[in-house]
Amino acid sequence: MKYLPLILIVSNEFCERFCFYGLRSLLFPFLREKLSMSVQHSTIIVHLFYVSCYLFAIVGGILSDSIWGRFKTILILSLFYIVGCFMLFFVSLLESNLYLFFLGLALISIGTGGIKPAISTFGGDQFRNNSKKELSTFFSVFYFFINAGAMLSVFITPILSNLGCLDNDTCYPLSFGLPTLLLMISIILFTLGSDQFIKLAPNSALLERIFLVFTGKTENKGKNDGIENLKKEFEEQIFDDIIYKYANDAAIQHSFISEPNSATNKEQKQCEMFFKPVDITHPTKIEKESENTQIEDKNELQTIKSLFKVFLPTSCFWMVYDQQSSSWIEQADKMNLKIFNTRILPAQMQSFNAILTLLFIPIFNKLIYPRISLAPVQKMGIGMICASLSFIIAAIVETVNRNHQISILYQIPQYILIVAGEIFLVITGLEFAYTNSPKDYKSIILSAWLLMVSIGNSLVIIITSLNLFPPTNKEIYSFLFYAFICLISSIPLFTSKYKNEK
């Protein structure tokens, strides 16, 4: 087992996540402060950005599994990513070019979304023996460094944005520039490690196979192709066999005439047996292989459908989780931001997520998981319950803060619960998606897992746009509504067919 490829992959992910979470923490305040957008419009744009990021995960999964391969997919789409980051950097200098701003967000969505399913599965590919224990350790370390990058980013970039520069009281060019620089470093590191990686070849027939499997046409396709391939094979072989047969017949006949009692007589019988007529209209072997392929395709289809049924409820987890970057920032902005005479920026509270995640991962792995015997889907269900409870706490905080302004530190309990939910659901879900997906579909299955983030954020956009709640207590009702949806959505995970698989 070579550790250098894993170190390069994890380092690349650390830098990329620093960039993404830095942009994520800046997006809402930048829209509000510099582009003068309303809370509602800023919320919709933030979650629309998340939707597009994770929607492109499907494209990245297809590219990495069937066209470019994982390494090439990561490298090419990272270039889209870096160009988009430079565009946001220039917009932060101009503070007015909306077209360039949205184009930059689009390119970042293509880049970060496209490489998401490829990078973690590419890391899993480096384990030749596919050891479950080693894979589990890798995904925990991988997620640890994701959160290390996120923690540093969401703490540092808001500070940089509030430094005065270029005759302004803010410095968004600096705060956008640092994540862009680290992304460049991540691309360089990844390129330098090219010769060290295990690179699995893409399956070029995968797209056609997926289409045939989902349209139920594999049976006829497999059977017809099997017969046609057999006929073609025999047509090519029979011409050579006929020449060979007659040449041997002539030699055998000559030997038989000259030496009638020789062993050649036996050879003639063997030759006749070998060259007996072949009925190519009954390709039994090929048909059997085609039937096996059809069974394999059907089994893979059933696996994909079963996994999708597990994934779908988790979209409601992301519906609440990603509001840390929108509604929770807005809530923090209305609270007392001073701690020991030091002003905490609302966006900096997101650093608690990363800090708590780094603390909780070893605690969960060493102390909690060994003492509970739960299937992965049950852990994921508990994660959704924790996320639901975090929004109930957020509603309580919002209610209390209405009467008299309270410290921003009162948000910490909701961060503790959302992080516990994240560890129960996200890390477990990553490993579950990788280990249960068919070999040729790993990036695509992980894309489907990431697609749930897109669906969850789409729900936020829809609910926000509908203005379902009265303006006076809008935030309180909204938090409780999201909590209820998330709680109800956890039920299918506890009743899943995978509930008994430890």
TrEMBL record:
This is Peptide transporter. The chain crosses the membrane at residues 39-62, 74-93, 99-119, 140-160, 172-192, 352-369, 381-400, 412-434, 446-469, 476-495. GO terms for biological process: oligopeptide transport. One of its GO terms (molecular function) is transmembrane transporter activity. Gene3D superfamilies: MFS general substrate transporter like domains (1.20.1250.20). InterPro entries: MFS_trans_sf, POT_fam, PTR2_symporter_CS. PROSITE patterns: PTR2_1 (PS01022), PTR2_2 (PS01023).
